[in-house]
Amino acid sequence: MAKPITAFTCTACGASHRKWAGRCDACGAWNTIIEEAPLSQGPGRGLGTLKGKQIPLSGLATQEAPPPRAISGIAELDRVLGGGLVPGSALLVGGDPGIGKSTLLLQAAAAFARSGQQAIYISGEEASAQVRLRAQRLGLGDAPVRLGAETALRDILTTLDTERPDVAIIDSIQTLWSDRIEAAPGSVAQVRASAHELVTFAKRRGTSVILVGHVTKEGQIAGPRVVEHMVDTVLYFEGERGHQFRILRAHKNRFGPADEIGVFEMTGGGLAEVANPSALFLSERGEPSAGSAVFAGIEGTRPVLTEVQALVAPSTLASPRRTVVGLDSGRVSTILAVLEARCAIPFAGLDVFLNVAGGMRVNEPAADLAIAAALLSAREDVALPAEAVLFGEISLSGALRPVAQAENRLKEAQKLGFSRAILPAATKVEGVAGMRIDRIADLTGFVGETFGAG
């Protein structure tokens, strides 16, 4: 077994020596050389005997002011970013092809440029003329945005280092290539290397870098997941092509709340921000109809009311269909099982279709009660009260569990004209006057009170 190698280090200047000596050759001090164990004895050579410099440490208490933010003027975008764009931050924006990523970021670049920030837009997928045509169509032809079309990472970094912009948008990360890596653009190695160099540049020069990423058919950003760990913020652009609404959701944000959303409407002149998404999602509600329930949810820090729609019809198939849009299909299957096991309401032989109106996606467990209400309403062909909103989590025993931020949900519902709320019995609600509160202990009690005996 090899004998572990030791090092001799001067305590005065930190210089390393092969053997002990009375006097340090680097600083000339006497009796300052001591014997130390190597820094690493792992497989191979490890870190060797050479030591690094000690880093300064500090406590958790700080007097530093929060980082300054650049405000774009697009309120929904600033909300998702946590109050604006932090200098030196790196963002990754993903979404389906054609969902509006390039349109939104071109509008954002123009907004930052008009607010006094120097903005550069580098396109790797389109020629400069195509980007100019889009800018003219959006009414942004006069915005002082610097435009370039390039895919070579070395040329892009050289340009950014020379221009020193405040905001740099790279569209997209999958088109870049580094001449030091023998792989095709879009490969794992190229994407990882390009993202690392751009994030390092952002931290070193104080430029806010926004990267556009393609998504796979599963909806995840293509390429290695380490890219999402490198950047400070990960935004997903969601929405159905058949709907005019687009949701910008923060899945990760080191400078603000995660799961915050910004709502936009796709128009002929680009993406228009929606200040009150609850009113927009409920704007097409007409007379009360069976299978419709209004859910009071929380997205990030804002309450949002959405309509859960259900259709239950006899099935001609051996295995009835379960089609779910905008909700977690596993959660819906669990609710159907609880209704059958705890409330003796069978759905065997029935096709079940569930949808969230407006193209919104709801992932909260608090939507369980609204989903169950919509299913029961569609099955029994009985409309729920038009003035009522619902929220609550359903456990496997059929009990209703309280959810967080109940008062904010009720205040948003009251603002839109709803006067009744159906919620779990253990929910603590204070300060919501003029609203009827129906407290339900379990799902069986809800079925009996709302739909009779079931």
From TrEMBL:
<feature type="domain" description="RecA family profile 1">
    <location>
        <begin position="66"/>
        <end position="215"/>
    </location>
</feature>
<keyword id="KW-0547">Nucleotide-binding</keyword>
<dbReference type="InterPro" id="IPR014721">
    <property type="entry name" value="Ribsml_uS5_D2-typ_fold_subgr"/>
</dbReference>
<dbReference type="GO" id="GO:0000725">
    <property type="term" value="P:recombinational repair"/>
</dbReference>
<dbReference type="GO" id="GO:0003684">
    <property type="term" value="F:damaged DNA binding"/>
</dbReference>
<keyword id="KW-0067">ATP-binding</keyword>
<dbReference type="InterPro" id="IPR020568">
    <property type="entry name" value="Ribosomal_Su5_D2-typ_SF"/>
</dbReference>
<dbReference type="GO" id="GO:0140664">
    <property type="term" value="F:ATP-dependent DNA damage sensor activity"/>
</dbReference>
<keyword id="KW-0234">DNA repair</keyword>
<dbReference type="InterPro" id="IPR003593">
    <property type="entry name" value="AAA+_ATPase"/>
</dbReference>
<dbReference type="InterPro" id="IPR020588">
    <property type="entry name" value="RecA_ATP-bd"/>
</dbReference>
<protein>
    <recommendedName>
        <fullName>DNA repair protein RadA</fullName>
    </recommendedName>
</protein>
<dbReference type="GO" id="GO:0005829">
    <property type="term" value="C:cytosol"/>
</dbReference>
<keyword id="KW-0378">Hydrolase</keyword>
<keyword id="KW-0346">Stress response</keyword>
<dbReference type="InterPro" id="IPR004504">
    <property type="entry name" value="DNA_repair_RadA"/>
</dbReference>
<dbReference type="Pfam" id="PF13481">
    <property type="entry name" value="AAA_25"/>
</dbReference>
<keyword id="KW-0862">Zinc</keyword>
<dbReference type="InterPro" id="IPR027417">
    <property type="entry name" value="P-loop_NTPase"/>
</dbReference>
<comment type="function">
    <text>Plays a role in repairing double-strand DNA breaks, probably involving stabilizing or processing branched DNA or blocked replication forks.</text>
</comment>
<feature type="binding site">
    <location>
        <begin position="95"/>
        <end position="102"/>
    </location>
    <ligand>
        <name>ATP</name>
    </ligand>
</feature>
<keyword id="KW-0863">Zinc-finger</keyword>
<keyword id="KW-0238">DNA-binding</keyword>
<dbReference type="Pfam" id="PF13541">
    <property type="entry name" value="ChlI"/>
</dbReference>
<dbReference type="InterPro" id="IPR041166">
    <property type="entry name" value="Rubredoxin_2"/>
</dbReference>
<dbReference type="GO" id="GO:0005524">
    <property type="term" value="F:ATP binding"/>
</dbReference>
<feature type="region of interest" description="Lon-protease-like">
    <location>
        <begin position="351"/>
        <end position="454"/>
    </location>
</feature>
<feature type="short sequence motif" description="RadA KNRFG motif">
    <location>
        <begin position="252"/>
        <end position="256"/>
    </location>
</feature>
<comment type="similarity">
    <text>Belongs to the RecA family. RadA subfamily.</text>
</comment>
<dbReference type="GO" id="GO:0016787">
    <property type="term" value="F:hydrolase activity"/>
</dbReference>
<comment type="function">
    <text>DNA-dependent ATPase involved in processing of recombination intermediates, plays a role in repairing DNA breaks. Stimulates the branch migration of RecA-mediated strand transfer reactions, allowing the 3' invading strand to extend heteroduplex DNA faster. Binds ssDNA in the presence of ADP but not other nucleotides, has ATPase activity that is stimulated by ssDNA and various branched DNA structures, but inhibited by SSB. Does not have RecA's homology-searching function.</text>
</comment>
<keyword id="KW-0227">DNA damage</keyword>
<dbReference type="Pfam" id="PF18073">
    <property type="entry name" value="Zn_ribbon_LapB"/>
</dbReference>
<keyword id="KW-0479">Metal-binding</keyword>
<dbReference type="GO" id="GO:0008270">
    <property type="term" value="F:zinc ion binding"/>
</dbReference>
